[in-house]
Amino acid sequence: MHLRKTLAAAAAAMAMSACGPQPEAPAPETPPASETPSNAAQDAARAVADAARRTPVQLDALFARAAGEFNVPVNLLKAISYAETRWEFVQGAEEFEGRPAAFGLLALRGKHITEGAALAGVSEAAVRSDALANLRAGAALLSKYAAEAGIDRADLGAWAPVAVRLTDIADPDVQAHYIHNDVYSVLRSGEGAFTPDGKVAVSLEPASVEAKFALPRMQALAAGPDYAASVWHASPNFNARPAGTDVSMVIIHTCEGNYAGCWGWLVNPDAGVSAHYVVNEGGTEISQLVRESSRAWHVGASYDCGLNGSVMCGSNGVSVNHFSVGIEHGGFASQASFPAGQIDASAKLSCDITQGQGIVRDSYHIVAHGRLQPATRTDPGPNWPWSTYISKIKSYCGDGGTPTGAIVVDSNNANNNAANARFSTVGTWTDGYSTGYYGSGYYYAATEAVSAPAVFEFYLAAAATKTIDAWWVAGTNRAPSAPFIITTSSGNVTVNVNQQANGSKWNTLGTYAFPAGWNKVQLSRWTTAGYVVMADAIQVR
Fold first, then answer.
1. Mean pLDDT of the residues in the chain
2. 495 has a pLDDT exceeding 90
3. Which of 42, 202, 252, 440 is an S-S bond match for 412, by CB 3.0 to 4.6 Å?
């Protein structure tokens, strides 16, 4: 698709997302039928809004300035950035021991930061924290490599062997995958991104260009031995699981880098790490690296059930790798959102793993790497859409998930469909992450005689009768009579619940009639002092 068509379609989706009321400027409670988005339109709007959170400012001028200063093709600089970070300024973290963290729009690492900073005349700290400094450092390195290679700078295809030097990929075949399938693929197709307020953040016009670089080895791409929708890239980095071990967990990781560089690192015998699967950024390809029956090396910690809701305490002190399957995802724990295609592909994969291995499909058995290794890891980060992800897994496996037509309003708006769900707080609330939460955490506040609620809002295209469920993390300091105030067609109804019990599951508050438009369920703090109330999530069904 031509870039202008791509941007036009995205602009239309963003405009559609604005048809439903937004927190800053609520729309009328009963919009005309023509303005009520269809499910497909809502999905498109959500995907565009999610992507826009990753590019909060306009970047075209910065790319042009850095490319012009160092005589580097601006489209090449944009394509490398897209392949590495989807044009998001990332603050990387170490995922694999021995592989330095990546930073900035170009995901520069280690020696590239040091050398690039020197060439661009900026500090290493600036390369890690400033967009223009990061681009200038990368462009300076590319210019240096081009001069060393003696290429024709006007020939975009000739830059391929220069571009690959900006990565840490050593294997020639993985380099070929990266150049042809990532960098030059987006140069040919073109791409674009918006800021959250609808301005063009980056535009990359398509070009007719072929990389002057060896093609990936011509071989039949065998399917993974356990998942037919995957490609088999065998890693030597594994060993046998202990005899009699039941596989009982799926661990979710982010690569802290690009897909090709990730699986390329994990199949390197010198890396000493691996995972069973890697899912690419768009969800269009999955690599299987290790058989599920074998022990991959993806978590550097022994199990502690105290970090995981006191589940499977009999495994305390045992290496998590003994009983888990690891899924890496192209991307970063710091990124603002994850592509819908990647989440969907990963959910299908997790469904297949849990069915084949008999793993319970819940948030204690499909777990973040960072939860089990919190001292040194945070992936997949605070914006991984856990509620959507677990629900999709259950749906694909045919055992429920969010009921058809239901709306979940999570306390993390990154997990919400902005067209029909939003969350806010009034006054002082604190975010919390004790195990058993829904989505990506929760908010809590001390009980006192103040009108400062947590507000869950949901949008209905037409008046309807709906059942409201609430989710909280139980504990002894929770309010025994937490007041949920539900605004119905007939007025407010208050439902008091005991948040010291029935935690980490849906609890029904009641069934009520609601008008068309935005509706509210508020969790009040106005109850017996000396406790806290827990605002986690509600479900409307």
1. 89
2. yes
3. 440
